[in-house]
Amino acid sequence: MDYLPAAAPIVRLIEELNKLPGVGPKSAQRLAYHLIRTSREEAQALAEAVTALKDTVVYCAQCQNITDVNPCAICSDEGRDRTIICVVEQPLDILALERTRSYKGLYHVLHGAISPINGIGPGDLKLQELLDRVAADSIAELILGTNPNLEGEATATYIQRQLPSDTVVVTRLARGLPSGADLEYADEVTLSRALEGRQPA
Question: Residue 108 in contact with residue 91, Cβ under 8 Å?
Answer without folding.
Answer: no
